[in-house]
Amino acid sequence: MVRQPAINAQNRAPLSIERIIEAALQIVDGQGLGRLTMRRLGDALEVEAMAIYHHLPRGKEQLLDGLVAHVAIAPAETRGAAGWREALRDWARGYRARLLDHAGVLPLLVTRRNPAALATTTASLQEVLRLGAIPEAAAAVAAHTLLGYVIGHAALEARGTPDGAGETVDWDARFNGGLDLVLAAINP
């Protein structure tokens, strides 16, 4: 039998907010939000739970805000896109995938007050819209609408509830169809 070397504190990355958030995200992704406790998080990080409070003085509240920020902030990239609509389409598809990958955080994203997390993403979307010559006021409304559409769709998809009893849903087709409608409504 081959013995695995014991992992000691010298071989571990130092405790940081980023490492704490990543470990919490792994717990939520694997076991669900209800299983996230400071003790379980400490065990995953191989530290005493109280050590986490050194980096997150507000405790679990700050941890939950950190999870929302980590998942919610997704800048819209314009590199490689044929135009502003394609950049927004690429962003929306990528953001939906990110939200579904971390579906356990979706309830927090919808219910927690963390305006900075969504404001960063909205500002990024507005910048892409401005590149498409969309006036400032219309860009703000369009960015908000697009963000709401993607989050709402991901929440419904994660819940997995089709419209009718026993109906199977092609979530990709439904998402892309709705996205086409949202993007078509944005006019420079």
From TrEMBL:
Pfam families documented for this protein: TetR_C_1 (PF02909), TetR_N (PF00440)
Stored InterPro entries: Homeodomain-like_sf (IPR009057), HTH_TetR (IPR001647), Repressor_TetR_C (IPR004111), Tet_transcr_reg_TetR-rel_C_sf (IPR036271)
Gene3D superfamilies named in the record: Homeodomain-like, Tetracycline Repressor, domain 2
Keyword Transcription regulation tagged: yes
Keywords on record: DNA-binding, Transcription, Transcription regulation
Source organism superkingdom: Bacteria
GO terms assigned for molecular function: DNA binding
Protein name listed in UniProt: TetR family transcriptional regulator
SUPFAM superfamilies: Homeodomain-like, Tetracyclin repressor-like, C-terminal domain
UniProt domain HTH tetR-type: residue ranges: 20-65
Any one GO biological process: negative regulation of DNA-templated transcription
Positions of the Tetracycline repressor TetR C-terminal domain: 80-162
